[in-house]
Fold each of these.
Amino acid sequence: MNQLDLTPVAVATVVAATLFSPTVAEVAGPYAIIYLASVAGACVALMQRAKTTRMNAALFFFGATTMALLLTVPLSLGVSVFLPSLKAHWLFAPMAAGIGYSGSDLFKWVFQKLNRLVDILIEMRNKP
C-alpha cells in the first residue's frame, strides 16, 4: 500500500513545486516551514516582552527569525544523528519555533561567547 507523505515539510515542498521548479521546491519547502514556525515563536516571545518602540520590536523579530533560519537545520540534523528514531524534517517546525521563541536571548548568548573568544585570542596574542 502506497502511503502519502503528509509531513509539513513534504506538503510545503509540493506547494512550492506548483510555484517553482521541483529543484527549487526541495529547498523552498523546508525553509517555508522553518520561516513560518520561527515567525510563530518570535510572535509569542514578542507578545511576552515589555512594551518597547516599534523599531526595537522589529529588530527583535528580525533577530529571532534570522537565528531560527540559520540554526534550525544544523541543530535538527545534529539531534537526528544522536536520536535516529527522530527524522530531521520532523524536527524543523518545533526546533524553529523554539529558536524563534528564544532567538533574541540565544543571539545575545552566542555573541557574548564569541566576544569572550576574541578577548582570549587577543590576550594570547599580547602575551610575550
Amino acid sequence: MISPSIATARSSPAMTVEVAGTTRRAWSLSTAVEVVAVLASPLLAFYLLRLRPMAPYRVPDPALMTAFIFHPADVFARYQATLQATQRLREAGRVGFLVPARLNYLLFGALPGYFVTRYVFALVAVGPTYILLRRLYGPSAGALGAVVILSCPVVITAWGSDFADSAMVSYLTGAVACLAMPGGERQRTVWVAAGGGLLTMAVWSHLDAVPLVGVTIICYLAVRITRARREVMKDVAVLAGAAIVVTGLLSVASELELGHFDFIRPTWDAYRYLSLPSSVQRDHSSNWHWALYVTYLLVPPAIVLAWVVTFGRRIRAIPTAHLFVGLVCVGQVLAFFVLQFAGNVQTLEIFYLSSPLWGAVCLTEAITIAELSRPLLSRPATRWLPPALLVVVPLIYEIWPHVPPLGWRTVAVAVALVLVLACAAGRWLAVRVATLGAVVGSGLLIVAVAGAALVLTVAPVSAHARTRGEVNQLRPNYAAALGGSAAEAIHAYQISSEVPAFVGRASRQGEVLMTWWDPKQYAAILPTAGLYHAGRTALLTPPPALNSFERIRLNRFRPAEVLVLTTRSLASAPVLRALSVYRPAVVRRTVLRAGALHVHALLVSLGRFQPRHP
C-alpha cells in the first residue's frame, strides 16, 4: 500500500518541480559554502594555527628579488654593467614569481602586495588539492588535504620570503593535483592544461624546478600509457600548448612589468655560469656527512615509505590518482637525492632549494592519511574527525614548541619508523579489526603520522663542527613557523619598501650604489641592504671604520653613492672623514621606523667617481 503523501507527490507535476528546485537550491548552497571555505582556508589557518606570515632573511637572495619587485629598472641601471658577467642579476629571469609579485605590489603596495601574493600562492596549492581529495574521498578529506599543506612548516617558511621557492612549492603542488584529477574527457583536458601551465610557471620561477617538473611529466605519461594509451598524444599536445601559451604571456608581462621581454636567455646563461667547476666548488658540499644532522630531510623518504606500505599491492590494483601522486613523490625525492649526493647540485643542503620538494610530499602525505582514515571517513558521525585531528597536532606543538635536536643516528630514525609503521598498522586495521576498533585506531594513527612528520620537520639542526668539504651551514628555523613571531621581519620589510624612495633612482646607466653597514646588525639590516646587492657590493666593516680591503672594493666598483645603514645613531662627520679621499658629500639622511626597529640611513655622494660634466 502506498502512502497518500507519496502518491500525491508522484501524481503532481508541481510538487515534483518544487522538490527538484529545493534540491538544486540545497546543492547550490552547499557548493557555495564549500567554495567560500576553500577561499577562506588560508586566512582561517593563519589565525587558528598562528602561522608565521614572514620569515627572517638569512641570506641576501630574497632581498635581491624584492628589489626587482619594487624597482626593476633601477636595479638594471645601477648594476647590469658591473654584475652581468657573473650572472648576479639572474633573479630577474625568475618571472614565474616576479610577475605576480610585482603586479600585486603595483596594485596594493609593498606590504599588502606581499600578503596578497602569499594568499594567491596558498590558494594555488590548496584549491586543486581540496578538489582532488574531495573527489577521491569526500569533502572532509578535501579539508584534510588543505590542513596538511597549511600546517606544514616547510611550506609556511617558503611562503615567508621573496625567494622563488614560495612560488615553486605552490605551483608544483597545484600541478600534481591537477594532473591527478579524475573526471570526464572535457574535464581532463582542462585539468591537464591547468597542470601544464602551473608546471611552466614553476620552471620560470627557478631552474631547480626543472628536475621536479621533468619527473612529474615522465610519471604522468607513464601512467597514462599504461591506463589510457589513446589519450597520451592529446595530453602531450595540451601540455605543450599550455607551456607555450604561459611562456608567451609571461614574456609580455615581463616586458611590461620588469622591462625585459627575453627572460629565457638570461636564465640559460645563469645556468651555464652556475654549472662551472668554480661555481660548483663554491656552492656544493663534496661530502654527505652534513646530512646526518638535518632531520627534516628524513620526512620525504619517510612519506614515500608510508605511501608504499599503505598502497602496497599490485600496481594495477592501485587507483590511478593514488598511483600517479605516489610515483611523482618517489621520483622527485630520488631526483633531488641523486642530484645532491651523486651529482653537483645543492638541491638538499640549502633549505630554500629543497622546499619545492614538499609539494609532492604534502600531497602524498594527505592521500596516505586519507586512505588510513577510511574507517572514519565512511561514518557520518566521524567523517570530520581526521581534519580536526590534523589541526589539533600543530596546536599541541604550539603549546610546547621545544623539540630538541635529534640527529639521524638516534631518535630521528625511530620517529621516522613510527610514521611508517603507523601507516602499516592503519592498513591492517582497516581490513582486520572490528569497525569500532578501526575507528579508534585510525584516529590514533593519524595523530602518530602527523605528529612524527611535524617533529622531524621542526627539530633543530644538531650543532656540529663543519665537516670536511661542507660549504653550507645555512639552516632554517622551521620550529617558529607555527606560532612564531614575525614582527621584526615585517618591520624590516616595511623599512625596505621605503628605502628606494629615499635613495632615488639612478640618473644614468652604471651609477653604482654600495651599502655600508655593520655585520653584527645583519638580521635587521640585511633586508634593506640586500636591495642593493649586499652580498656583492657592500662594505662590511662597522661604519665609520674603513680598512684597506674595503678601499680596494670602492676603487673596484667606483660607486657614485654609498648608502650607510645602522640601527644606532651615527654622525655624518666620521663617515665623511673616512671617505675623504673620495670627495664625499651628504646627499640626505633620515631615520626609518617600523615598530621597534629603527634604521638610520645616510646617503653619501662620492665626487671622485661622479662623471665629469663639460
Amino acid sequence: MLGVVLAVIVAVGVPVGLWVVGGTLRASQGAASPAAASEAVLGSLGPYADDDLSTVERYLCPDVVAELRQRLQEMRGQLEATPDGDVRLDGSDFLTTTEGGTATVRVRVAARFSTVDASGQVILSRGEAHEWVFRAQQGSGLRKGWRICDFTAPALCGIYITC
C-alpha cells in the first residue's frame, strides 16, 4: 500500500513541481520585446491593473524596481484622483531603436476619458497625444527578456488631466 501511495505522490508531485518551477522562471523573465515591456508598464497605469503593481515588476530592471514602482504609484494616484472622470492612457506608434542589449522606445500616449452626464449618457473623449520615452535593457540567463530601466513622460497634471 505504501508503494502505491508513493507512486501517486511521485506521479503527481513531479508535474506540479515542474509547473511551479516553470511558472517561477517565466515570472522572472521580462517581455519579448522592448515595445512589449513599454506597453506593460504603460498598462500598469490603467484602471484594471493590480493595485500593488506586482505584476509589472517583471518588466522593470531589478536595480530600479522600487524607484519605478513609486513613480508609477504616484501617477496612478493622480489618474484616480482627477475630477475629469475615468481616465485611461493609450499608447500608439511604438518606435523602437535597439543597439546591442539596450533599446529606446518612443510612444505617442493619449488620455481617453469616460464621463457620465446628467442624463446618464456616457461620454467618451480623447486628449492630445504626447511622447513618452522608455529605456529598456535585455536580460540574460534565467532573467532573459526586456525590462524598462527608466522612462520620461510629460507631467500628467496640466498636460493630460486636471489635478
Amino acid sequence: MRILTGASNIMSSITVSRTDRQAIIKYILEGKNRERLTYGVSYDDGVVPIFIIGVDKTDIPALPYPYVIESNNTKYIVSNLVGMIKSTMIDDSLIASRKSDAVYFELMRSILTFKTLTDETPSVLVTITAQVLTIWIREELKRKYKLDVIDTADVEGAVFYYLLKQFDPDMDMSTVKTKMSNYLSGAYRGSGSNIDRVIDRLKDVEGNISTYISALSDSVTLQNLDMRAILSSVDSGWYSGGMSSNLQIYAMIEDFHTAAAIIYHTLNTPTGKKTKLAGLLDNQKRIVKIDQLENIFDKMMNEYVGK
C-alpha cells in the first residue's frame, strides 16, 4: 500500500523542503528522548510515530499529513500537532489530550500509517473506506448534477475502482473484480451496464478520479468534470475541528490513511458527528459495514494508545 510521503499532483504546494526535513530530523534525534516524543503511543524498533507538541511554529514546518522520514535505519512517522493542542494539556500521554477532536484524527492517521509500514493493515478496512468515499462522492455529484441511474452507476463504478487501485496498488485484478462485483451489483441492476464493462474500460486508464469517470461514462456532463468540481462537491461534508478541512479532503482522494482517519473522526468525535458525512454513514449502515469499521478502529486505538 502506498505511503504518502511527499508531494502529489493535488498536493504539490505542501512539499517538505530539505531545510524543513533537516529541522525535523534534528528535533527527533537531539530534542528529546524517544519515549517523550511518542507520548505513550506504542511503536516498533524500526517504525516510530513522533508527535511534535509545544515547539515554536517557526522551528518545525506545518505537516498537513503524517510525514514518513528515515534516519539511522528507523522510519519516523511525524505528525505536527502544534496549534491543535497545548503542551500543558498533556503529561506523557496523548490520551488526556483527546479533548481535541483534531488529535483523534491525527492519532488514527498516524496509527494507520504505522500499520501500513509494518504490513498489518486489515484489507477489509481498505475496502470499506473505499466504499464510504465512493458513496459520499456519488451522492454529492448525483445531487449537484441531477444524474440519472446510468450516470450515477458510472460515477460509482469509476470512483470505487479508482480508490481500490489507489489505496492498494498491489491488489490483483481478480480481487478488484470480486470486490466490485460484491459492492456494485445493486448499482448496475437495471442500468444497462455491468462490472465487466467497467473493468474493461478502466483497466488501462491512468490519472485522477475525473479521468476514470470520463473514461467510463458517455455523459457529456461527467466527461467534462474536473478534479476541482469533484472536490468542491464534497468539501463541505466534513469539518475537522482544528485543521484545514479542505486540505484533508483533497488528500483523502489519494491517501488511504487520511480517508480512513476522516471516517474515524466522523464516527467518534462531537465535531465529526455533526457533519453531513455522519448523516450519510448513518443512512448507509445497511450497505456499508459501519459496525465492523468501528470495531477495527476501536481495536487499533486501544492497542496503540490505550483506553
